[in-house]
Design brief:
By secondary structure, the protein is mostly helical. Helix content is 75%, strand content 2%.
Amino acid sequence: MIIPNKVEKYVLYALLFIFIMIILFNSFDLPKGARLFPYIVVIGTSVLFIVMVIKEILVDIAEKNSESKKEIDNEEVENEGITFKTYLTAFSWFLLLGLFIFLLGFTFGVPLYILIFLFFKAKRSFVTSLVGSIAMLAVIYLLLYQFLDVYFPPGLLLNLF
């Protein structure tokens, strides 16, 4: 099943923007020091989101205005768009991240996820994946625990010990 690029693309952008705004509004309930991280993420993501949407709109306008469109055969049109399998794969990786956070907590779940994702999906070497994972653990520790003084609860498995 092929998902067309035009309308569904903008619907997906709208849903992502709503998700970003939910993160922003939920961060108002956090303590003063802990608000900095969501603000940085929301502002950075919003800027990238706006640039991406403007680029897509300009590409769509350029396609509509071009008078010398070439005939595209059915095989090329079939390969355009994102397949359902791609969405399912991305959603599965997202669920795996949620499972790791639930079982191991944010502190250890995210670095483990980074290790597995880089090694299996991104096809990086184990050493590169391990360095990325350790770097993420250092960022979590230094930025969240030391700088922002935000502590996450341990996961389900870590509560047993």
